[in-house]
Amino acid sequence: MEEYPDSALRILESVEPQQLKVQADKAYYALLLTQARDKNYIVQTDDSLIRIAIKHYDSAENIPMQAKAYYYKGCIYRDANRCGDAIKEFLTAIPLAQKTENQRLLGLIYNNAGYLYYLQDLLEEADSIYQLAEKLAIQRNDTSLWAEALSFQGKINIERGIPYYPKAEEKLLKAFEMTSAPSYKRVQAGIAAALSSLYNSMEFNKKAIQYAQLNISLRSDTAQRYRAFLLLGDAYFKAGQYDSATIYINKSLLSTGYGTKASAYMRLAEIAKAQGDLDRSLALAEKHSLYLDSLHLSKQSNDILIAEKKVVKQQYSNTIERQNSKLHIVITVSILLVCIAGVIYVKLKSNQRKTRTIEQKQALLEKEQQELQQKYRQLKNKLNQKETEITCLQKEINQQHGNEEKKKKLQQELDILTKERNALAKEALEHSEVYSKIERIINSYKKDD
């Protein structure tokens, strides 16, 4: 399993599950097959197999196997993009792995949990867990885990902004140096991508392009290459090489990820604007806005926080069941549960207030949009009237061949009408839906970056 996971998978797939009569064998087979698939990077989203293992090892109270089973159940939910459920399983597995002193498994759990926190923009939580992973990696002399931990600490520091860039560069370069061997190709690809992103932000264009190209050369998985194409396109964009940027950014649009698509359309809109094609720039900005909305809706940070609460409650419930006969422990746990319930109640109230605030903002936004659309329609009607008046006046001027005085007077009227028309056109644009969306995008980026 550890040295040749592909061979392990072939052997396990040759086993006929119906031939396994003993429940312990069925559970062990379910765990091994799930583990082998995960080690071969096969996406798993069905938890029916691993549930067989968990049910058996829970009833047998086999802690080492429980730890592994809960970890791989978390991996399945990770693959299914169920971040909250995945974190719940990882947090359940951590104390079990700590009891068995299975440091390697503990490192894997930290790495996966940290990644999910990072994906959902829970940077403080991600940083804390990657620091734990780094300490564990140093104790075990585990280069791969250490490099991953350093890499993600670097990425977190990039997200924190300009003052943290030197710290990010230090950690990423250290991780890059550690993973020079061919066996660390996958880890080094991620580090190269992070370095390209960092140097892009620092406007070191040559370095950004260099590491983005290295990132692509190290990627074998097609899905991961889409993000790599976007990164290289972004580096070319910052360097002012718009043709090369467009080629690679268009390649990235084959991705199914909302974040990749949103970023790609934003860059393409900026390129179109820089090239003077404003209509195309507006159309691309509209697509960017749509995918940005989808990305915000897909965030599951609240699911993760709810999962944390569930794990805490479950762990204390288990403690109560085991220690029910000991009165002083029951009292202690009860007090703890009251405290937790109080914290959860406060957080739920806070979430309810946030939900109400969001609903009120949405209602206000809808009202503003309706008013905006009504105003836009009124302005468009006025604009159309002005256009008609200008056309009629222009015809009248063209018909004045001999009367120069009248022609001059009409031209003055035409100039006034043209100014009024231009003012109306500008006001109509500012009340259009596209203008409103672009304004929201700009404000969003001002707030976040």
Secondary-structure topology with pairs:
Layout: H1 5-13, H2 23-39, H3 48-60, H4 63-79, H5 83-100, H6 103-119, H7 123-140, H8 143-160, H9 165-178, H10 185-201, H11 205-218, H12 222-238, H13 242-252, H14 258-274, H15 278-298, H16 301-322, H17 327-399, H18 404-430, H19 433-448
Q: What percentage of amino acids are in beta strands?
A: under 5%
Tell me the series of helices and strands, N- to C-terminal: HHHHHHHHHHHHHHHHHHH
- Assembly type of the shown chains? single chain
Taking all Cα atoms into account, the compactness measure Rg is 30 Å
Q: How confident overall, as mean pLDDT? A: 82
The level of helicity is over 70%
- Helix vs. strand class: mainly alpha
Overview of this protein structure:
This protein is mainly alpha-helical and 449 residues long. Helices cover 84% and strands 0% of the residues. It has helices at residues 5-13, 23-39, 48-60, 63-79, 83-100, 103-119, 123-140, 143-160, 165-178, 185-201, 205-218, 222-238, 242-252, 258-274, 278-298, 301-322, 327-399, 404-430, 433-448. The protein is elongated, with a radius of gyration of 30 Å. The model has no long low-confidence stretch (mean pLDDT 82).
Key terms:
single chain, 449 residues, mainly alpha
In brief, what are we looking at here?
With 449 residues, this protein is mainly α. The protein has helices spanning 5-13, 23-39, 48-60, 63-79, 83-100, 103-119, 123-140, 143-160, 165-178, 185-201, 205-218, 222-238, 242-252, 258-274, 278-298, 301-322, 327-399, 404-430, 433-448.
